[in-house]
Write a structure and sequence with these properties.
This protein has helices at residues 66-74, 91-100, 111-119, 156-166, 180-189, 213-223, 245-248, and strands spanning 4-9, 12-17, 23-24, 28-30, 36-38, 59-60, 81-85, 103-108, 124-126, 141-147, 167-175, 194-195, 226-234, 237-238, 251-257. It is an alpha/beta fold and 261 residues long. It has a single domain (51-257), classed as Rossmann fold, CATH 3.40.50. It starts with a strand and ends with a strand.
Length: 261
Amino acid sequence: MIPRYKVRYNGLSFAAPHCGSCTSDGSEDRCCDGALIRKSPKNSREIGNNDSMSAQRYCMPDPSSALTDEIIMRQIDRGSRVIDLGCGDARLLAMLRDMHKCSVLGIELNHEEMLAAIARGVPIIQADLDRGLPEVPDGAFDFAVLSQTLQEVHRPKGVLVEMLRIARHALVVVPNFAHWRVRLQVIRQGRAPVTEALPYQWYNTPNLHFMSMYDFRDLADSLGVRIVKELPIIKGRAVDRAWAANLRADSALYVLEGSDD
């Protein structure tokens, strides 16, 4: 049985799984429930950068940069209740708390990232997004954030539905694998592209799903989810109503609402 502990947020108490007996073999961690946690590579040897062709591949800008955080923060009202799914070290949540006076809560699976979030003083629950968030009540938040994580989960549809169950608005940032340089690289070299933030080969990448902006729109439509705002991110800037966005954007931010709103 997974040990659990109490997390208090805004007057609510959640029973959250606690990974107090994680194990590691140096390259990957396993939670006490057996779930695999990926660790970032420490050097180029670990990610197979010895291949000379890797250096010629198109590298999309780091999606976890401060610029992406700023774009997300502009969409969130001061004093809002915010939950970040896959929050990492809770850098974004700490800024929302300190600069926007938001009430914040993080969800993270990686044990080391979770400890970093706790060090920032951010309340956090350790959980696997693919298993849902039954501990979190309906409508407990104003905004749910999912930044550069949707392509890594096994059940993207289920995660989006869960986001809009627990929050009135969902902010989702996804990479755009239809960028023109990615397309050109595949045509010219016939090889899978890599990014600076996720510098993995095709056989050990955390990306399980590859989507374009068009694909995400289709997913939202299939779920009956309304896209309130679509912001293509081009060279680190959010460009509203950009021309040929599906060709030019490295990633995109979507503001979503459920069909009942």
